[in-house]
């Protein structure tokens, strides 16, 4: 009976060795994929962070900037924040996969999962309440238009920056149409309603023809397919990152538990 147990243990060890070899091979492949994937994110995060810092320190010096300094400052802060998040997550993924550190992989998995869930909730909210979002945006834009010529209104300067940035960048005028400005001023529309060569003599006859809300709607509707593919690609990459990190951490944990009892 003892010889039978020894024989059975021998074959068990052989099968376990084969299984471990397959797991190690698969784990190494997944580890390299996870490293390369997060190296790209780490590099992209660094680039976004660098652009944000450059814009922040170069406010007022950028040539041909059609937006206000406040808008550039907000954009710079957004890029710096986004760059830091992507940079840190990419760094965790790179270091965790390269050093096979379980704590880094767990933290990477947790951060990517949180971001993924937030994106899902945000996407569902926007889709379910898309009409409400459009209404709120239109009302807020019109509210800024009402404060454009009112020097005593709160957020007067900020509203001027927002309206001018939207109109000059999107080449639009008013919320729904250029005539919207007649509700807030008897004078001519803002210079941002016209192309740069007509700003000195801007009137309702030479303004941009479309309202800003319509331009945004047309852009979204005409690029829905590309936006959908982009969102789907980001979701797939995040899911792969979570699955790879989870599998790699589980494999490292199993290997550690197996090696400890057999170590001398």
**If you compute it from the alpha carbons, what radius of gyration comes out, rounded to the nearest whole angstrom?**
28 Å
Sum up the overall morphology in one term.
elongated
Helical stretch count? Answer: 7
Largest sheet: none
Give the fraction of residues assigned to helices.
over 70%
Contiguous uncertain segments of 5+ residues: 1-5, 7-11
Structural class: mainly alpha
Terminal Cα span: 28 Å
Strand content: under 5%
Average pLDDT over all residues: 81
Order of helices and strands: HHHHHHH
Number of strand segments: 0
Question: How is this structure best described in words?
Answer:
With 264 residues, this protein is mostly helical. It has helices at residues 2-57, 69-99, 102-128, 130-148, 156-170, 212-222, 224-262. The longest helix has 56 residues, at 2-57. Residues 1-5 and 7-11 have low confidence and may be disordered.
Present the secondary structure layout.
Elements: H1 2-57, H2 69-99, H3 102-128, H4 130-148, H5 156-170, H6 212-222, H7 224-262
Provide a concise account of the structure shown.
Helix content is 75%, strand content 0%.
Salient structural properties:
disordered N terminus; mainly alpha; single chain
């Amino acid at each position: 009976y003892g010889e039978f147990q020894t024989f059975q243990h021998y074959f068990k060890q052989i099968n376990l060795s084969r299984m471990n070899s397959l797991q190690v091979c698969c784990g190494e492949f997944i580890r390299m994929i996870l490293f390369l994937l997060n190296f790209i994110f780490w590099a992209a995060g660094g680039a976004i962070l660098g652009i944000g810092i450059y814009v922040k320190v170069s406010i007022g010096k950028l040539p041909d900037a059609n937006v206000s300094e406040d808008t550039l400052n907000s954009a710079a802060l957004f890029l710096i924040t986004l760059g830091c998040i992507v940079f840190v997550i990419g760094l965790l993924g790179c270091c965790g996969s390269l050093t096979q550190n379980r704590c880094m992989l767990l933290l990477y998995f947790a951060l990517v999962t949180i971001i993924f869930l937030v994106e899902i909730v945000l996407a569902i909210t926007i889709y379910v309440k898309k009409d409400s979002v459009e209404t709120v945006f239109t009302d807020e834009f019109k509210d800024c238009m009402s404060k454009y010529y009112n020097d005593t209104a709160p957020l007067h300067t900020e509203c001027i920056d927002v309206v001018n940035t939207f109109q000059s960048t999107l080449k639009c005028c008013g919320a729904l149409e250029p005539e919207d400005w007649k509700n807030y001023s008897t004078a001519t529309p803002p210079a941002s309603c016209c192309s740069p060569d007509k700003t000195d003599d801007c009137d309702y006859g030479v303004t941009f023809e479309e309202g800003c809300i319509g331009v945004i709607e047309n852009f979204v509707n005409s690029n829905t397919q590309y936006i959908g593919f982009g969102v789907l690609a980001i979701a797939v990459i995040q899911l792969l990152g979570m699955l790879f990190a989870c599998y790699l951490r589980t494999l490292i944990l199993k290997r550690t538990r197996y090696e400890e009892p057999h170590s001398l």
